[in-house]
Amino acid sequence: MELRECECCDTTEVHEELLKTVHEKMPVEEELYDLAELFKVFGDSTRIRILFVLFEAEVCVCDLAAALNMTQSAISHQLRILKQNKLVKSRREGKSVFYSLADGHVRTIIDQGREHIEED
User: Fold this and answer.
1) What architecture does CATH give domain 29-118?
2) What one-character-per-residue DSSP string does 40-81 give?
3) Contact 42, 48 (CB under 8 A)
């Protein structure tokens, strides 16, 4: 993919009505920050791999570590980030802790991202 300099207008003309609409619809700064932080969580391929495992089944850390050929410590670290961002949830059963997707939004976000990168 070739990177080109952004094309700019030949003149400076501010479209006031458009700007008014944009300012009315723009979320507050805190919401924009939270949204950016959420998307940062998706910026790690290990976390994406964990989510793909969780698309298929509720699993414990041992299963995730085996499925992804990683240490339980590394998996636990990534699960902590996913849980803090409300993308996964956990439940204890005896001595095991099982993880699953927090809700259907997680799959939707990933599916739409995949559709986007597969566009021509």
Assistant:
1) Orthogonal Bundle (1.10)
2) HHTT-HHHHHHHHHHHH--EEHHHHHHHHT--HHHHHHHHHH
3) yes
Tell me how far CA of residue 93 lies from CA of 60, 70, 90, 101, in angstroms.
10, 23, 10, 17
Distance separating alpha carbons of residues 89 and 24, to the nearest angstrom: 35
Distance CA 69, CA 71 (A): 7
Cα–Cα dist 40/94, whole Å: 33
Q: Which residue has the tokens 């207008």?
A: 9
Q: What is the pLDDT of residue 2?
A: 61
List pLDDT tens digits, range 35-71.
999 999 999 999 999 999 999 999 999 999 999 999 9
77-114 tens-digit pLDDT: 999 999 999 999 999 999 999 999 999 999 999 999 99
Can you give the residue ranges of every domain in the chain? Answer: 29-118
Query: What's the whole-model pTM score?
Result: 0.84
List all residues 6 or more positions away from 65 whose beta carbon is below 8 Å from its beta carbon: 71, 72, 74, 75
